[in-house]
Design goal:
Blueprint (H helix, E strand, L loop, with lengths): L30 H16 L14 E5 L6 H14 L3 E5 L4 H16 L4 E5 L7 H15 L4 E7 L10 H7 L3 E4 L5 H14 L8 H8 L4 H18 L5 H8 L3
Parallel strand pairs: 1-4, 1-5, 2-3, 3-4
Helix pairs in contact: 1-2, 3-4, 4-5, 6-8
Length: 252
C-alpha cells in the first residue's frame, strides 16, 4: 500500500505522542550532528557565562540539510525543547508564521547583549519568501556579534545550492554544516521499536518488516502509523499482530 495520505481511520486520539527530543532521536548516520547538539545542551546546563571569544560562532550557528524524513525538523524541535527545559528563551521560526519573526527582531538587541544562552530555530529555510529572507539576513548579522545567541537552521540543500540570495547563502555557511541522512531499513525498525516501547506497545515480530515492504517508507508516516496502531489496539483491546494491522489499513 503506497499513498500520499494516511487512511481516514488514522484520525484517532494520539495526544499522548512523545515530543521530539534528543533522547528519542535515532542518530544512525547523523551521529556527528546529534553528538554536537548533545554537547551544546550540556554546556547550557553548566550555565557558566562565557566571553564571545570563548564561545565561537561555529558553536552557536549550525545549519543542517537533507531529504524529507531525515530528521531535520525532529532535531530542531528537540533542541528547542531542550532549551525550554532549561528555562532559556526560545524562538521557533517557520515560513508560515511571519509574526514570530517580527517579535524576534524586536527582542534581538537585548538577546545579543545577554550572557545567558538563547535559542532560535529556523525550519525549511528553502521555503522563505523575499521578506523572511531579508529578516533572516538581519538576524544573522545581529547574532554574529552576540555573546550567547544560538541559531539552528535546516533546509533541503547545502547552502550553496539553495535558491536564495547569495549573501544569505554565504552567511549560512559561516557556522557548522551537517548533512542529514535517511535511516536504513534496520535503523528504521529499531527507531519504530523504540517508539512502540515508549508507548508501552508490543508489536508482533512480523509487523515492522511487513510495513516497510508494503507501507510508507518515510519516518513521519511510519511514526504516525505507530500512533494509530497504539490507539486502535487500545480501542479494540487486541494485541498488535499482522491481522490487526491489515484490518486498520483496510480501506473503509
Amino acid at each position: 500500500m503506497h499513498s500520499s495520505s494516511l487512511p481516514k481511520q488514522f484520525a484517532l486520539d494520539i495526544g499522548h505522542t512523545p515530543k521530539p527530543s534528543l533522547s528519542n532521536f535515532l542518530a544512525g548516520e547523523n551521529m556527528a550532528l546529534h553528538s554536537t547538539l548533545l554537547a551544546l545542551t550540556k554546556s547550557w546546563e553548566m550555565n557558566v557565562p562565557r566571553d564571545a571569544s570563548e564561545n565561537p560562532l561555529n558553536q552557536r550557528w549550525i545549519y543542517w540539510w537533507g531529504p524529507e524524513g531525515s530528521g531535520r525538523t525532529h532535531l530542531l524541535s528537540a533542541i528547542g525543547d531542550a532549551a525550554q527545559q532549561l528555562g532559556l528563551e526560545y524562538f521557533p521560526l517557520t515560513p508560515s508564521e511571519p509574526v514570530s519573526w517580527v517579535r524576534l527582531e524586536d527582542k534581538l538587541p537585548t538577546l545579543c547583549a545577554s550572557d545567558k544562552p538563547s535559542v532560535i530555530t529556523v525550519d525549511d529555510v528553502d521555503r522563505l519568501d523575499e521578506r523572511l529572507v531579508a529578516s533572516l539576513f538581519r538576524i544573522l548579522n545581529a547574532i554574529q556579534g552576540s555573546k550567547a545567541v544560538h541559531i539552528f537552521i535546516s533546509g533541503n540543500a547545502a547552502p550553496g545550492a539553495l535558491r536564495l540570495r547569495e549573501d544569505l547563502r554565504t552567511r549560512l555557511g559561516w557556522g557548522l554544516i551537517f548533512q542529514t541522512h535517511l535511516l536504513g531499513d534496520d535503523e528504521k525498525i529499531e527507531a519504530l521499536q523504540q517508539a512502540a516501547q515508549a508507548r508501552g506497545l508490543v508489536l508482533s515480530p512480523d509487523v515492522l518488516p511487513w510495513l516497510l515492504n508494503r507501507f510508507y517508507r518515510d519516518m513521519p508516516n511510519l511514526m504516525a502509523l505507530i500512533d494509530a496502531l497504539d490507539a486502535y489496539s487500545l480501542e479494540t483491546k487486541r494485541a498488535v499482530t499482522l491481522p490487526l494491522v491489515r484490518e486498520l489499513l483496510q480501506p473503509k
